[in-house]
Amino acid sequence: MRIENSNICLLIGSSKEVSSTSAVLGEIFTNILKQKNANIHTVYIKSLEDVNNSSAFDQVLSSDLIVLSTPLYVDSLPAPVILAMDNIKEYREITNFKEIKNLFFGIVNSGFPEPDNCTVALKNLEEFAAETGFIFAGSIPVGGGAIIAKAGIKRLESSKAISDIGLYFNQIINEIIEKDIASESLLLSIATSIIPDHMQLVMYHHINRMCAT
Q1: What is the percentage of the chain residues whose pLDDT exceeds 90?
Q2: What is the strand order of the sheet 39-44 is part of?
């Protein structure tokens, strides 16, 4: 993928929009792309509820790379995200956009420390890409979503408790640039490194204390 002057759509799947964990993670990811001279456009999931809202769908489907950053709700994708994916697929079928080979990458965040809860949602994203005609560039689960949102981008950059998410995302982006897809081995390695094991234990200890009070 040629990244310079490419068009990137950041699709935020959270109803909290700019204040959400999804927005924080999406901004970290796309800020790296911006540094590589890509053009970034942000679209919120609410604007894709109506398939007649052509300007929002045009913005998504005219992009070289679509990055969906979404939360996990009850071990699944949120209903508005599922609706938006159905609408994107429908809109692409009835327009000339079906001739464009968009790349698609997903970021799914969970409130639980470990990333394993996102497995089904990640598979859903892969199936959506295949059915829609996108080139699936990969997807990554991120645990500890609440901590990430509370910390925000600036505090995450200097955090010693949570590994450097930006560094990991940069590795993913470099593979997408080189091969149009991030390897499963890299994604698995990163998914288990963002919230290290010792931090998972600390988080669960905190959760248990809250439940006991």
Answers
A1: 58
A2: 39-44, 7-12, 65-71, 103-109, 135-142
Rounded to two decimals, the pTM is: 0.86
Alpha-carbon distance values, 90 to 11, 76, 96, 105, 126 (Å): 17, 22, 12, 19, 17
Does 2 reside within a domain?
A: no
The candidate with the shortest Cα–Cα distance to 132, out of 174, 189, 93, 181, is: 93
* Token code pair at residue 203: 């988080």
Q: What is the CATH number of the domain that holds 89?
A: 3.40.50.360
* Beta-bridge partners for 42: 10
Distance from the first to the final alpha carbon of the chain: 52
Inside any domain, residue 1? no
pLDDT in tens, 35-93: 999 999 999 999 999 988 899 999 999 999 999 999 999 889 999 999 999 999 999 99
- CA dist 113 and 156 (Å) reads 16
